[in-house]
Amino acid sequence: xxxxxxxxxxxxxxxxxxxxxxxxxxxxxxxxxxxxxxxxxxxxxxxxxxxxxxxxxxxxxxxxxxxxxxxxxxxxxxxxxxxxxxxxxxxxxxxxxxxxxxxxxxxxxxxxxxxxxxxxxxxxxxxxxxxxxxxxxxxxxxxxxxxxxxxxxxxxxxxxxxxxxxxxxxxxxxxxxxxxxxxxxxxxxxxxxxxxxxxxxxxxxxxxxxxxxxxxxxxxxxxxx
Length: 225
Ligand SMILES: *Cc1c(COP(=O)(O)O)cnc(C)c1O
Fold this sequence. Notes:
Bound molecules: pyridoxal-5'-phosphate
CATH class: Alpha Beta
Number of domains: 1
Distance between the termini: 7 Å
Shape: globular
Radius of gyration: 17 Å
Order of helices and strands: HHEHEHEHEHEHEHEHEH
Strand order of the largest sheet: 7-6-5-4-3-2-1-8
């Protein structure tokens, strides 16, 4: 990580915010309703602070343990932080994830959903969830298949009482992203799921055009990892 990239976090953040606002205006959407999830994985608390001082409050991390090491201390000074888990979750990390995160975007199977429901009940903590959909049907990638999504959603909502606020996808690398964003949009509309987490540094404007409510932007703000 070069010093100059970290120094410029407020400037980069402002640029991303402006690009988001433009994409919203272009598609007649309200910029105030767009959620920028600032992806801070691999960056230290010192590197994250300038983003917090610039008013950014929603952050995304992809590893439970890394987030548990960084965020509780940052929350002392910034209690209104909203932290999202955007990486895969294993059963043995669910309890820790509920302590550290406000939203889990990577729910992709019944076993994990059940564990989240059980532990959040025990801890008396409401956690909001997104279901991750494997829109590219990639065997190595996390996410429920498009075919199995309706059953998982139904079980989460009706059997487990989980709050499913949205759908999330990570399109295959080196493939056009718009078919995946359009597919996620259609699934959300057909299944009555309000929020869509899609779009990263390279393609968040496209994602907004295709209906994203949450964009997950890392390197455009913090520099390359
Ligand atoms: C790292 C990551 C991002 C951010 O990617 P950038 O290209 O750095 O913006 C978004 N979503 C997920 C799931 C990630 O793991």
